[in-house]
UniProtKB/TrEMBL annotation:
Boundaries of every Aldehyde dehydrogenase domain copy: 12-483
Source species: Streptomyces luteoverticillatus
Alphabetical UniProt keywords: Oxidoreductase
UniProt family annotation: Belongs to the aldehyde dehydrogenase family.
The protein, known as: Aldehyde dehydrogenase family protein
GO molecular function ontology, one term from the record: oxidoreductase activity, acting on the aldehyde or oxo group of donors, NAD or NADP as acceptor
Amino acid sequence: MTEYGHWIAGAWRAPEKGHYPVVNPATEKVVGEAPESTPAEVADAVAAARAAQDGWSRTRPRERAAVLDRIADLITERSEELAPLLQAETGSTTRITSAMQLPTAAERFHRYARGATEPHVVPLAPRPVRASPLAPGGLLGAAAVRRPVGVVGCITSYNFPLVNLAGKVAPALAMGNTVVAKPAPQDPLCCLELGPLCREAGLPDGVFNVVTGSGTGAGEALVAHPGVDMISFTGSSAVGKKIAEAAGRSMKRTLMELGGKGAAIVLEDADEAVIKSAVGAVGSVWSFHSGQICTAPTRVLVHRSLYERVVAGLRHYAGSLIVGDPVDNSTTVGPLISAEQRDRVEAHIAQARDQGARIVVGGTRPAVRPGFYVAPTLITDVTPDMAVAREEIFGPVVVVLVFDDEDEAVRIANGTAYGLHDYVFSADAGSAWALAARLRSGNVGVNTVQRHPETPFGGFKESGIGRDGGSFALDAYSELQSVVWPS
């Protein structure tokens, strides 16, 4: 077990308030000790980022790219050391850790190494302008140029701590910004390990800093600090609203990737192959990090004619899953991040039962000790007004609702405060495309839950503000400056 310090200005900083324990969700044992931060320590991290920003922004793009590539390489080279720590603090299964956590983080740094050298100048055609009291007439040339925002505060989620941080830090650094990161309190240790790794890769001191804390204080201090130009946040919509309100007082730029209540719509024309695909896609709610993912298709909207077949397929799928120790290669469903989150998910299931829904699979705590486990749960006889059909649960819980026509399906799908990721399953791609246009959702998958890495990612409504992903992230972490001159 290691006691970590804050990572500020290229060095470890012993915390003034001491440490708090980071607990393994599968064993309930302490993995390591993370530093508690004070507002003064957050301010020191911001000052370090501010001091480094001018030099980093003027570093040639190819040099920035080389550093980002080296960070990616080091993540891959150190994966055998980092993977056990990452698995222990997140509770993710061996399969998820090895396939989705570290490799994806490395891929994101490689992607934005390329992004650093993408064209950042959009030339505009010369335009003749008439003389005015403001200035003489003439032929004017112009360009729109991406410029760094400045100091970016990155506040990340607990489900994919290093992946989520890489998705923010890599494009921010590619654009010449500097960063103060505040990871989720439940699993910040690998994010702290990224500090010395970045320094080894050649990142100048102060360009990347990490502060942590067990409560809300560190994040609140970061959002409120006048030296921070932008906040990039991934987390709940409730917290996102508070951040937006606080950031608005100083007109900070914000990028918000918030909650979701994904609808998987199975249309009447779905044949056996499409139904099988839909069942497998929805099953990922249970098997992919125990449903702790904001894009999960947690609501299944099924045409009445297919309802029993889809429910039977989901029941069979859930029954085949193995709940247990995430280190065991046979495990498909690991623990939730904390006892608090487990209790919250169980309360949602109990409320659904009380409101008349039927628990088809799961609904009871599995006989796995120790650890914060919830069994894969399938709930039917759900109506759109029930809390389980409207609120983000963030656990291995799937609810099934019935519809009679596409208009009703659209009303149900759009009938929550969220709009992050929906899915349409149909034997007719044209029909699915047309239905996608009616969904108030930032992302729509047609017969798949896969994501294209270059698409813009973000949500409608309370699922967020702004877009990242692919080259769109370079826009998110930059300001557009117009430059005009006489031709």
